[in-house]
Design goal:
There is one protein chain. The protein is of the alpha/beta class. The chain folds into 2 domains: 142 residues, 3-Layer(aba) Sandwich (Rossmann fold); 173 residues, Dihydrodipicolinate Reductase, domain 2 (2-Layer Sandwich), CATH 3.30.360.10. It is built from 9 helices and 15 strands. It has a 9-stranded mixed beta sheet. Strands 3-2-1-4-5-6 form a 6-stranded parallel beta sheet, sandwiched between helices. Strand 2, helix 2 and strand 3 form a beta-alpha-beta unit. The radius of gyration is 20 Å and the shape is globular. It starts with a strand and ends with a strand.
Length: 333
């Protein structure tokens, strides 16, 4: 049997329970050996019972001190990412950190610097990028089938009870639609177009008194004149797609970020300038593929396809959008 990376889970968040730990169990080169819930051993024990995890801890530090653990997954609130990524790295643990990596570009850079200094692998968990449908989209773009790309549109939205105590609505914890799901749209714009914007503008007329944005729209502008517009919202029906528009046609990906909701099925709809369309179906297990890629990088001492430098670039754009949102002005990057 091939070697497996031993994982520890720092926290019992829903994303860990519903997506990441099941993905580790499906992966061919990873296994979960421990979970921690700060100050709540019972919660950690209940989580462990669901997945037959051997060890539980009631402190994150105790988990990080476990020498058997090689890699950790950090699904903590956004404002805690920087602190615990650094602590994990200094204990020699490789780190898969939930998105967004941190709250600012400076924080992200400091996290990546510590991971580099400690010679551990760091990756921000944008799981969607590991679904093979996006590689196919890039192939179609490069083939010239839709001509020269001039525009990309993306959207990620769902309904969230704004009266709830959800951490997504807490400004102190790094809440807001832009941090939570807008980061996907920003990432996809850079990932699919394979370039960096030089200016951004974002706006929102729907905010809580704390300043947390509930719905935000934005525009990224690139040096060659290409634009990428996006919208993210806690107040709209579930949507998670993007569209790439060219001079001879367009590509639509309706399940771009959460194809797992469709059983792993990705759809790519290609429409030519005459309005004729065809649909390609691409299947994939994006969460398991992410775990397998990260674990492979640890085993082989390779750099992840999405490394810390790229996380810094993504946070630079995200922070630019936040500044634009707060000041109602175009921000040069």
């Amino acid at each position: 049997m091939s070697e497996k990376i031993k994982w520890g889970i720092v926290g019992t968040a829903g994303i860990a329970k519903n997506a990441i730990v099941p993905a580790i169990l499906r992966a061919n080169n990873a296994e979960v050996v421990a979970v921690a819930s700060r100050g709540n051993k019972q919660k950690a024990d209940e989580f462990a019972d669901l997945f037959q995890i051997e060890k539980t801890y009631e402190s994150y530090d105790d988990l990080l001190n476990d020498k058997e653990i090689q890699a950790v997954y950090i699904p903590l609130p956004n404002n805690l990412h920087a602190e615990w990524v650094k602590k994990a790295a200094r204990k020699g643990k490789h780190v898969l950190c939930e998105k967004p990596a941190a709250l600012t570009e400076e924080e992200t850079k400091s996290m990546v610097d510590v991971c580099n200094q400690e010679k551990v692998v760091f990756m921000e968990a944008f799981m969607y990028q590991f679904h093979p449908q996006h590689d196919r989209v890039k192939e179609i773009i490069r083939s010239g089938e839709i001509g020269d790309v001039s525009l990309m549109r993306s959207s990620f939205s769902f309904f969230l009870d704004v009266e709830s105590e959800n951490i997504r609505l807490d400004a102190q914890l790094g809440g807001g639609s832009l941090y939570d799901i807008g980061c996907y749209c920003i990432h996809a714009s850079r990932f699919i177009l394979e370039k960096e914007p030089n200016q951004v503008f974002a706006a929102s007329n729907h905010r809580l008194p704390s300043g947390v944005d509930l719905t935000t729209t934005g525009i990224l502008t690139f040096n060659d004149g290409v634009t990428a517009s996006f919208s993210c919202s806690f107040q709209q029906p579930f949507e998670n797609g993007y569209e790439v528009v060219g001079t001879n046609g367009k590509i639509k990906v309706p399940f771009a970020f959460r194809p797992d909701v469709e059983g792993g099925k990705g759809e790519i709809v290609i429409t030519n300038k005459d309005g004729e369309s065809r649909t390609e179906v691409v299947n994939g297990d994006q969460y398991a593929l992410q775990i397998e890629h990260f674990s492979h990088c640890i085993l082989t001492n390779e750099k992840p396809s999405y490394d810390g430098t790229k996380s810094i670039e993504n946070m630079k754009v995200l922070e630019g959008c936040l500044v634009s949102l707060q000041n109602n002005k175009i921000v040069q990057l």
